[in-house]
Amino acid sequence: MKALSRDLKKKGLKVRLEEPLWRYTTVRVGGPADLMAYPETLEEVLELWEFSRRQGLRIFWLSGGSKVLFADAGFRGVVVNLRGLKGVVELSSGHLGVMCGTPVAVLTAYGLKRGFSGTEFLAGVPATVGGAIMMNAGAFGEEFGDLVESVTMLTPEGLREYSGKDLFGYRTFRGPSGVVLSARLRLRPRDPEEVRARVRDFLARRRATQPLGRPSFGCAFKNPPEGPAAGELLEAAGLKGFRRGEAMISSKHANFILNLGRARAEDIRALMEEARERVQARFGVELEPEVRIVAET
């Protein structure tokens, strides 16, 4: 891998060997990646894509890291950190061209300044545009996919643009396999003071109901299509405060798994499996993880 790293550096790309993955996830868990790359342009992304294909290397596209669990042993292959692909272009009033690594908070700040609404429901969430699209991030009855007019993706067939229509389900992206590089978004006109009030309201609701002081994924499980929410089921199953090692189900919100300091990926996986089994046994409901679990190999 050292030789491959030298080759990429000669091409002007920023790369690191054996980079600890816990540094890049909100739950603060994960061993080293063989190689992590930090592209800042579309051309560098394409170079990494072709390089990995030629070398037969596994590749993982990492956005904000809020819904991903890497193995304790890390990742054998190349992790491409997309946070350097930032940028917002105002195409017309309320219509934005946005790169995948742009923090959603930047869009909220734009709305506050210009009088546009749409992303306030994610206030306080460390999401990037790419991750918000791939997970169809949502909260309080709103979803990011509702803002997306089109996406530009790198797929096995090359760069392709897709209409946002029919691309999204509940916490799901239904587009082709690949990585979202940019998107065209549509925000709604709204008085800036109303936007500010919505941001304050969503932040207050999060502080009141969610354990924000410890590393976590946010919600660990999707809500079932019918019936009580996942957090309610987990609480009713007696799982608040349940621990495996340094991983614990929050006593404040049962759909949050907290890293108490030195949690391992195996602790978290075991905790998630135990939680699913208990809910299934008691209520006959199979909870679906909202977290992507990434194997070492």
Automatic annotation (TrEMBL):
Gene Ontology, cellular component aspect: cytosol
Catalytic residues (positions): 171, 219, 290
Metabolic or biological pathway, per its Swiss-Prot or TrEMBL entry: Cell wall biogenesis; peptidoglycan biosynthesis
One Pfam entry name: FAD_binding_4
Molecular functions (GO terms): FAD binding; UDP-N-acetylmuramate dehydrogenase activity
Subcellular location: Cytoplasm
Ranges in a coiled coil: none
EC number(s) from the headed UniProt entry: 1.3.1.98
Any single GO BP term: regulation of cell shape
Catalysed reactions, semicolon-separated: UDP-N-acetyl-alpha-D-muramate + NADP(+) = UDP-N-acetyl-3-O-(1-carboxyvinyl)-alpha-D-glucosamine + NADPH + H(+)
Top-rank taxon: Bacteria
Domain FAD-binding PCMH-type: 28-190
Annotated signal peptide: none
Family: Belongs to the MurB family.
Reported function: Cell wall formation.
Protein name according to UniProt: UDP-N-acetylenolpyruvoylglucosamine reductase
Annotated organism of origin: Thermosulfurimonas marina
Organism lineage string: Bacteria, Pseudomonadati, Thermodesulfobacteriota, Thermodesulfobacteria, Thermodesulfobacteriales
Gene: murB
